[in-house]
From TrEMBL:
Protein name: Glycoside hydrolase family 92 protein
UniProt KW Signal keyword: yes
Signal peptide start-end: 1-18
Organism encoding this protein: Sugiyamaella lignohabitans
Any Gene Ontology CC annotation: cytosol
InterPro entries: 6-hairpin_glycosidase_sf (IPR008928), GH-type_carb-bd (IPR014718), GH92_a_mannosidase_put (IPR005887), GH92_N (IPR041371), Glyco_hydro_92 (IPR012939), PNGase (IPR050883)
Keywords attached to this entry: Signal
Lineage: Eukaryota, Fungi, Dikarya, Ascomycota, Saccharomycotina
NCBIfam families assigned to the protein according to its UniProt record, in alphabetical order: aman2_put (TIGR01180)
Amino acid sequence: MKLSTSALLASSIVSANGASLSLLNDLLDIVPILSPGPSSTSTDPNQYVNLFLGADGGGHVFPGPTLPFGMVKMGIDVINSAAGDAYSGYAPDGQVDGISMMHESGTGGAPEYGVVAQLPLTGNVNLAIDNSQPRPDNASIGYYQIFLQNGVEVEFAPTAHAGIYHYTFPADQAANVVVNITHHLRAPSRPYWTQYFTGGNVAVSSDLSQYTGESTFKGGWGEQGDWSIYFCGQFDTPAKSVSSFVGQASSSSLTASSSSQDQAAGVIFTFPDGATDVNSRVGISFLSTDQACANLAAEINHYDVQTTTSQALDAWQSEVFDKVTADTSNSTIATMLYSSLYATHLLPSNRTGENPLWTSSEPYYDDWFTIWDIFRCLTPLYNIMNPDHASGMVRGLIDTYKNNGYMPDARSANQNGRTQGGSNADIVLADAYIKNIGQGEINWNDGYSAMVKDAEVQPPNNNDPFAPDSSTKEGRGALPDWLKYGYITRNYTRSVTRTMEYAMDDFGLSVVAQGLGKTADYQKYLNRSANWRNIWNPEASAKGYSYKGFIQPRNSDGTFNNTNYDPMSCGGCYWGDDEYEGKPVEYGFAVPHDIATLVEYAGGDQTFIKRLDDMFGVYGGAVLGDIGNEPSFLTPFLYNFVNAQYKTVETTRYLINNHFNSGNSGLPGNSDA
């Protein structure tokens, strides 16, 4: 069967293809127009953006204020929540432990960051005080407000590398602000992936109005080694006294440091009697305290939260919302649309100029959490809506390869890791290449070298205890099987997932190879992209279903492995299983580059339609696909390949109506950026 290069775009929910846009119009009952510049009339996005959409119910969406792809993501950090660990800092209940400068969004594995924090306390300082707050919090684009149990009102707003706080203290209570240099998000339910503080220091100016310092951490979902963040904070009101603390103890010393893991340490600013309004501004940097102070001076030279909020809203309007016009007569759909557009522009973080590892003039993006989660739909959306950012992201991925050895699949705190399936940065590059993103800015020879490195060089094993067979840090850990057998055996974990994704990744290589005139490579990787067929067992069956043929684990001798195999089950669906976060029946559809062959294997157009009908319960029967996990994101759109487009409309409408809503628990799973 011939493989079609045009089919790579099938993974994009919104593509440059007019039919795809028309389909989206029918789907949402609105008329979104993606344009290269501002629309003639602007919609106030604050009418429709719910920053908390997906923040509850396990969605872990970050609801705090930030800029599009902002490095600073200011937000509350909650502990002791009945909802469980607060991976983005926020939880709908519990104790506010700090208000910090950095977060990720939608992380399902474990939290990252929650660093560089302040916490307002009243009276005699007790670091264990219950700072729970009444709900709900108030948030709009570029702005957040909470009322703590101790009577303090807090407002805050961000810039790219800094943030501003406004505290309103009760008039009859002493006003204090705690700067805890060890503060970070934790994962009590997953201690093996929690973060740890490993060292740091803070110094206070002689006039008691400024502080600078650094904090070093390690751990988290990506199992990062030590990394440091630097900070520079200022208050508009000098303190009357500053004391330092380690644990619960305090003293009058103006410096504090700690090197023991997770023992609280920092300084407490106590303001003059009767102080009710206290303002603070803080800059951060991955480079130095001097750079943190320079970032602050360049971005916030005032103490007005509303000024910073207005600047943030302007950035969101010009970079995101002015590119979309919509019929907003259906307020629910409008809220889902605008809130989703907002949430899709939180990660990765634009860290250009803040790379502590190497010197480069190229853009730098961090917090890829993760490419496995977003390559099917989100990065293609960036290529349409934000081609400048999309170009910068691709250039940053290539530059990471040049200086780090491999492009990441996940990356946080300036370190690669973890890779769940394939080397799917290859798809990000291929999609950008065929859409001509960058228009001459991207060095495609270097980009192609990065892709070939993924396809040909096995990375060293990082001995991940969850999958000790091969690297989960970067690249393709199961490459030896791929090159020897043309599929992954159970000698490696996630054998089915990796087989399917390596095939798609190699198709991405073939696209770029063909464009660069590398004819032999084009044919080589095009042929390898058909390797998914090697794990299609035409005799495999599922109880209760009349059709045969499913993907299935395969042994090194070519026989299919029937041990613990059921096409409707993925066991634990985790690191040590054959399939990661998707059943075999779901992964069987994950070949957007070879749909014609898949339709043939499935039994022809009508049987293919029947198989799609069985996935989501739209037409009765069991629900086989999980629209809350990424392997099934593409599947509802495959009706388009067999002239049943109306069923894509019916299915996607059904899924939106039954699994999504405009409320705080509006997602069917964690958002994963």
